[in-house]
Amino acid sequence: MNVATPVNSDKLRYKIKVSGLPRFYSLLDPLLQEFLKMINEELRLNCIHARYSKKGNAWLYLTFPTESEQAVALRLLKKYNWKGRSLISTLVTADTPKNNLNLTYVEGNHVAKRPRLDIPLSEQVLMSTIPYHSIEYEEQLRKKSEEARILFQRFGTIIQRKQPPLAEWCAARKRQLNSDLAFELSPIIPSKKVDRYRNKCEWSVGINPDSDSVAVGLRVKDSMDGIHYVGPPDCLRNLPMPMITLAKKFEDFVKNNSQDWRIWRNMIIRMNEDGEVMVSIVINQHLLDNDQLSNIKCSISEWSKKNITENVVSLYFQVHGEKTLADCIGTTIEAELLWGQNLGAEELCKVVADLADVNENTTVLDLFCGSGCLALTLAKKCKQVVGIELIKANIMDAKRNAEINGIVNCEFIAGRTEDILDSVLNKLKGCNVTVIMDPPLTGVSTGLVRTLRKFKEAINLIYVCSNHKLPLKNLLDFSSVVRYWQKPIDTDPFLPLRIVPIDMCPHTLRSELVLHFKRFCVDDILSTKNDRPSKIYNNRKFRTKFNPRTSETVTSNIQPSTSGVGGLLDYLKKIEERAYQEGLAKGLERKAFQMGYSRGLQCATAANDDDKFKNNTSTNSDQ
Question: What reaction does this catalyse (predicted)?
Fold first, then answer.
């Protein structure tokens, strides 16, 4: 038996995550300071630390010194109304440092003894998975719609600050839309199914912290020395019942199996709209020989035939770390045909088709196309479709889906988008191209944005992203007109015109955002004029300063040229020259003062020496 070092309670930190706040960009934000004051003074919660993960987030991490105070905060802030907002508090599971665990290992089994939160395990599962589970769906939609509005209000502010030539264009758009946003924000599209809508779930094998026994469920605590702490799935209203039932049956199998339970990693379930289920069982990458692997596969196959009554049409076995599904057991039909579409994908496809507005002369370029869901939806309405995807298996699925649906005007290419995009664009020169992209959460590289901007045939751009992590840098790169106020960008920008939020995950904090960009001529943007006086340049005067070259005082009242970017750059150059001259003048004045002061001291010292010499001389003569 091996017992780890006991927990030092002085080092424990108990955290919660508070969501639904206004988006803020500094802890010194007055509204945020008011919230923290309310937390400590009105609710009398002993919050010892507040932290946010990234500027612009609408959530905050609060830290409490004890477990009981954390539980009180979770209870009070679970559905707290503050300034018209319904706040949600969820549990942050990474409370205990990894080296401060009190774990007891028993040969063949694992028993975990550690401080437990005074919160039911089912409640922890709900908090970490579907934090909006107790809020009416209409309220969820209102909150997500407000999130989208705040996001793009912030984006409008940033784009006007970083790209001053776009300020006039944004002002004209606001007047055109009669809105405080320069972009048209459509009402959020609700999900057709509020409950039991998920088509994929991943169950982890670990320890139930309540019973200290092996369990299969959703992780509620961080991995500790390879051990996951999981909670029961029964309370999750977003999962179809066959997924929950299969998790319970697999838990019984793991408990009764002769193998060490630590070899089992997780169970992945996918389900399509027809109720067909695909199951993949993953084991950890242990040093197992071929005979042991064969025994494990046989036990899985035998268990599935005897115990699974759900509509499971394929069963996979995979060793964690391998890139593909290594073996397929008892497959009745090809696995690729079982990967169902997201229930919300139908609405997403409709919105993309509406915004793209393709016709028989349009060529659709689908970047990060996956299995071709968006591309195939538009194929029958346009001239041709070209899709690019990194994963070859997805490309095979896309080609097979096109063949099944009788679509012949599609071409799908496997490869890294940044590597093959130039060659693809060369083939599309002269076409009327609409670009569709649904990239990873991290967005795309600056080089890819630059390549698309240089491709003049691209007129429309549809960008699909999540409200969880808005790709702000990508949006700015597509919209930029000048580069750091130094020189204009030699390509026409894509500017966002319309945003459509779609709720594809009810009871969660996330929603999808579909953005429609359109190509604009940079000259047309720079020629946009505002009837109202500019707050930036008009009536600006510069204070009197000393010109060291002419040794005279001058007063400047130079206004910027209205001849576009060139005039603006000339104006900025003059500002820099005057700033240099003013700095040089101040430096000379400072140097002159220092020299004068030092010379004054020298003169004073010399005068004192002369006086002393004269006094000494007169004294000697008297004597």
Answer: uridine(54) in tRNA + S-adenosyl-L-methionine = 5-methyluridine(54) in tRNA + S-adenosyl-L-homocysteine + H(+)
